[in-house]
Amino acid sequence: MIHAPNRPWRGVLVATALPLRDDHSIDYDRYAEHCAWLVANGCDGVVPNGSLGEYQVLTPEERARVVETAVTAIGGARVMPGVAAYGSAEARRWAEQAAAAGCASVMLLPPNAYRADERAVLAHYAEVARAGLPVVAYNNPVDTKVDLVPELLARLHGEGLVHAVKEFSGDVRRAYRIAELAPDLDLLTGADDVLLELAVAGAKGWVAGYPNALPRASVELYRAATAGDLATALPLYRQLHPLLRWDSRVEFVQAIKLSMDIVGRYGGPVRPPRVPLPPEQEAAVRAATEKAVAAGLG
């Protein structure tokens, strides 16, 4: 466990999948158990209300209770909620809710209702920073159409608005540019399938998807990769990569929940408009998961 109290986003923070019953209601007891199980299996914390947690289709009451459930289960220092919203005022309210629940940091996408320019991005992060919790930026230009390029991240960090970035662009070259422009800005791996590359480049954390199903193997991979132990990390990475790459696909929520079901956890259904995987994708995820389990990675 390398959880850093002054930088609570460091280490392996799992973007938690949300257990839904067959009627699509949230099983909060099962979610609390899942958060506790992840920490018991070596993960450093959780990130509720991220994309993997299907936050976009939760009611405000559900979204708040998810955060409170995670905090009760593992303590607020280990909970970094996603606070993304279409409006800056709403995102700030979610950050304030996180603070009231006892969380130590929050994760924030740029404005995602339209292709915001740099001035709008800066104003958005400034507004949410006023809630008083450290903000981790989340760069996902594929989904948001707003790219937090290294120069913009350096400006956000220089103005004290963000302390770290979850990097999901897939461009591992950015790690070196970010380190040059903002050496005190913590880089967090945001896509499972570039973990090794970004760890070697100096990542201080991993906002992770597949530990929902395979926490022990994932933590072992992260620890080895960040320690520079490539003799351990590379073979493990090769074994896990057929699964890790699903984290960067449109169907990542369904894939990770299916893997959870296969390994004996509870993944469960997804909320519409998401739909179950088609047969060929289900077969691919099932085969890759069963192979990982057979290799002792479950």
From TrEMBL:
The keyword Thylakoid is annotated on this UniProt entry: no
Gene3D superfamilies associated with the record: Aldolase class I (3.20.20.70)
Top-level lineage group: Bacteria
Positions annotated as active site in the UniProt record: Y138, K166
SMART domains: DHDPS (SM01130)
This protein's name: Dihydrodipicolinate synthase family protein
Example of a GO MF term: 4-hydroxy-tetrahydrodipicolinate synthase activity
Binding residues for pyruvate: V207
Similarity field: Belongs to the DapA family.
Keywords per UniProt: Lyase
One Pfam family hit: DHDPS
UniProt entry tagged with the keyword Metal-binding: no
